[in-house]
């Protein structure tokens, strides 16, 4: 009954923090460790009783088969005694077998739930780490976008500066060509410019 109660407590739904505290207490408390050690020794004795119950069941089954093979008239007290012995042997077999099975089940479920708690804690820690990194990476991504925008603006401005420089060169070349053509025209027509030299 104690094993069933403990098993029901272990698998019943409860908040994660309560389950975590309970299982950390059960796995780290030195008093609980001593109790577990004592229970392991007890289960060794239960295993011996289980083997004994199996042997008694086999022996009683063989006696029953031998009694049925005899054609003598059976006594009611003998049959009642046989039925009682068989009942006690079956009861002992079922009790010790169920106790051993539940002890194995409890140990396995305990370690599975403990592993689940550790995995859940690691998962929560990784989630918070990723959340912090995604916040930082979100800022970094925003800064990268801003840098790309500024670089695009700079390229456009540099392109405008190049266009302006090209336009200035063209204007100065056209001015020089105009002056050359005007001088040639004046020479050929003999006209003199009214401009004063600077």
TrEMBL record:
Ranges for region Disordered: 163-198
Protein name: Endoplasmic reticulum transmembrane protein
Family label: Belongs to the BCAP29/BCAP31 family.
Keywords: Coiled coil, Endoplasmic reticulum, ER-Golgi transport, Membrane, Protein transport, Transmembrane, Transmembrane helix, Transport
InterPro entries given in the database record: BAP29/BAP31, BAP29/BAP31_N, Bap31/Bap29_C
Source organism per UniProt: Kwoniella shivajii
Membrane topology of the entry: Multi-pass membrane protein
Pfam family, one: Bap31
Subcellular location(s) per record: Endoplasmic reticulum membrane
């Amino acid at each position: 009954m104690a094993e069933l109660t403990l098993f029901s407590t272990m698998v019943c739904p409860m908040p994660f923090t309560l389950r975590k505290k309970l299982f950390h207490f059960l796995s780290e408390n030195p008093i609980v460790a001593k109790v577990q050690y004592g229970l392991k020794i007890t289960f060794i004795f239960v295993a011996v009783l289980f083997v004994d119950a199996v042997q008694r069941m086999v022996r009683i089954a063989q006696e029953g088969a031998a009694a049925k093979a005899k054609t003598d008239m059976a006594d009611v007290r003998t049959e009642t005694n046989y039925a009682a012995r068989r009942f006690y042997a079956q009861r002992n077999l079922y009790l010790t077998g169920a106790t051993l099975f539940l002890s194995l089940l409890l140990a396995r479920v305990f370690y599975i739930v403990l592993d689940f708690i550790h995995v859940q804690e690691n998962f929560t820690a990784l989630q918070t780490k990723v959340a912090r990194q995604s916040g930082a990476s979100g800022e970094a991504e925003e800064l990268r976008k801003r840098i790309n925008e500024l670089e695009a603006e700079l390229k456009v401005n540099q392109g405008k500066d190049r266009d302006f420089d090209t336009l200035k060169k063209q204007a100065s070349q056209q001015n020089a060509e105009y002056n050359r053509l005007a001088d040639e025209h004046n020479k050929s027509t003999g006209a003199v410019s009214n401009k004063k030299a600077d």
